[in-house]
UniProtKB/TrEMBL annotation:
It is found in: Cell membrane. GO terms for molecular function: potassium:chloride symporter activity. InterPro entries: Cat_transpt (IPR003445), TrkH (IPR004772). Its main location: membrane. It is a multi-pass membrane protein. Pfam families: TrkH (PF02386). Keywords: Cell membrane, Ion transport, Membrane, Potassium, Potassium transport, Transmembrane, Transmembrane helix, Transport. This is Trk family potassium uptake protein. GO terms for cellular component: plasma membrane. PANTHER family: KTR SYSTEM POTASSIUM UPTAKE PROTEIN B (PTHR32024:SF1), TRK SYSTEM POTASSIUM UPTAKE PROTEIN TRKG-RELATED (PTHR32024). The chain crosses the membrane at residues 12-32, 39-60, 72-96, 127-148, 189-214, 226-245, 291-324, 344-365, 371-391, 403-423.
Length: 442
């Protein structure tokens, strides 16, 4: 695995771009569609970008348009995009018993968002092992459940596709008619397995590894504590808010029994972690619920996972900064640990860059697309956070709109800082400091 003289961020951007290009070419082939009709370059590019960036926004119905070949291509793109192409490249290197060089370890460090290369190959082995076990178990459970609704062979195929899609937070489905999992809103097994896959893929592989080792070490890192506590808080608050907002809405929860209300509320709270699947019809939700889901999508899941958004850790740091300022403290303290100033600056930078991108794209789309601003904001946030939830705008996008959403999905998947560093590498450390100035704030 030789990457010439490119920096790690440049390799990641180039790698993801190459996978998208290969996926685009494969999806353009007549064999990729049921009718033998070519998807066309723009629609193929959009679909390949959505699958590789594990988003789930689609311009054509996956089940009715694509052949088995096209669906398998999408499945592979979701798996490679979710785990990261460097993780998959490492898998082949390990299988072929090739040595992992220092350059490759640095690339893995960048792709997994780690602070050092120590133990990075061991982490990658665990990532691959955990992914295989979790997806395999989900395939078995899904296959058993769907064998009651369809032939067993098809049930197994559906189990494989949706296990990969949900674990990688991709959001693609094979149920046709852009329905996602709405027909299973009352089904406990489908809800539990789906939510487990989404959460497992969204908490991050470092957290997953620590949870597996918890019985031995009886200790969790600050990162894992923050991820687990914030993820749990957001899911619980989200479920309660959606339950309250949609309780009397006859188009969503209002027509369901108590069991369906609870499952629907929790699923729609979990899926903005960037999963993209839904058991309630998104356009039928009240505007308050739709806007609340936008906030959840913007936050997203956790670092080093298959998901997007600004991440739960970034959001926690921002909340911590507000609390510290209100209390008149100089430091942000989480679980009795003080955060370094560099972490705070990074969180602020990521949040502002994400907000700037979403606002800019939304304003541009509001002039090129015929839709309400809330619909456009929802679609843009969904694309940036690689969620895949949609209010129906994606299929109606203009050529320019599709291209802009593609760029947004790509930026959200590779990471804004990675993209910035790839386009303009970091400069060396300044050897001097300017005199301190005073400004009036607030």
């Amino acid at each position: 695995m030789k990457w010439f003289h490119l920096s790690p961020p440049q390799v990641l951007v180039t790698g993801f771009g190459s996978i998208i290009l290969i996926g685009t070419i494969l999806l353009m082939l007549p064999i990729a569609s049921e009718t033998g009709e070519s998807l066309g370059f723009m629609n193929a590019l959009f679909t390949a970008t959505s699958a590789t960036c594990v988003t789930g926004l689609v311009v054509v119905d996956t089940e009715t348009f694509f052949s088995t070949f096209g669906e398998v291509v999408i499945m592979l793109l979701m798996q490679i995009g979710g785990l990261g192409f460097m993780t998959m490249a490492t898998l082949f290197a390990l299988v072929l018993k090739r040595r992992i060089s220092l350059k490759d370890r640095l690339l893995l460090q960048e792709s997994m968002n780690q602070s050092s290369i120590e133990g990075i190959v061991r982490l990658i082995r665990r990532v691959l092992f955990y992914s295989l076990i979790i997806e395999g178990a989900a395939v078995i459970l899904f296959s058993i459940r769907w064998a009651f609704d369809m032939p067993f062979g098809r049930a197994v195929y559906y189990g494989v596709f949706h296990a990969i899609s949900l674990f990688n937070n991709a959001g693609f489905d094979l149920f046709g008619g852009f329905k996602s999992l709405t027909q299973y809103v009352n089904d406990p097994l489908v809800n539990i397995v789906s939510m487990f896959l989404i959460i497992a893929g969204g908490i991050g592989f470092v957290v997953m590894s620590e949870l597996v080792d918890f019985k031995k070490k009886l200790k969790l890192s600050l990162h894992s504590k923050v991820v687990l506590s914030m993820s749990g808080t957001l899911i619980l608050i989200g479920a309660v808010v959606i339950f309250i907002f949609e309780f009397t809405n006859t188009k969503t929860l209002g027509s369901l029994g108590w069991g369906g209300k609870v499952w629907g509320s929790f699923f729609q709270s979990v899926t903005p972690r960037t999963a993209g699947a839904n058991t309630l019809n998104i356009p039928d939700l009240r505007q308050a619920s739709q806007f609340f889901i936008i906030i959840l999508m913007f936050i997203g899941a956790s670092p080093g996972s298959t998901a997007g958004g600004i991440k739960t850790t970034t959001f926690t740091i921002m909340i911590g900064a507000v609390i510290a300022m209100i209390r008149g403290r100089d430091d942000i303290v989480l679980f009795r640990y003080r955060l370094a100033q560099e972490r705070i600056f990074k969180a602020l930078t990521i949040s502002l860059l994400a907000l700037l991108l979403i606002v800019t794209v939304s304003m541009i789309l509001s002039t090129t697309e015929d839709a309400s601003f809330l619909t456009i904001l929802f679609e843009t946030t969904s694309a940036f956070s690689t969620v895949g939830l949609s209010m129906g705008l994606t299929t109606e996008l203009s050529l320019f709109g599709k291209l802009l959403i593609c760029v947004t999905m790509f930026a959200g998947r590779v990471g804004l800082l990675t993209l910035v560093f790839a386009l303009g590498p970091k400069k060396g450390k300044e050897l001097y400091r300017h005199p301190e100035g005073k400004m009036i704030i607030g």
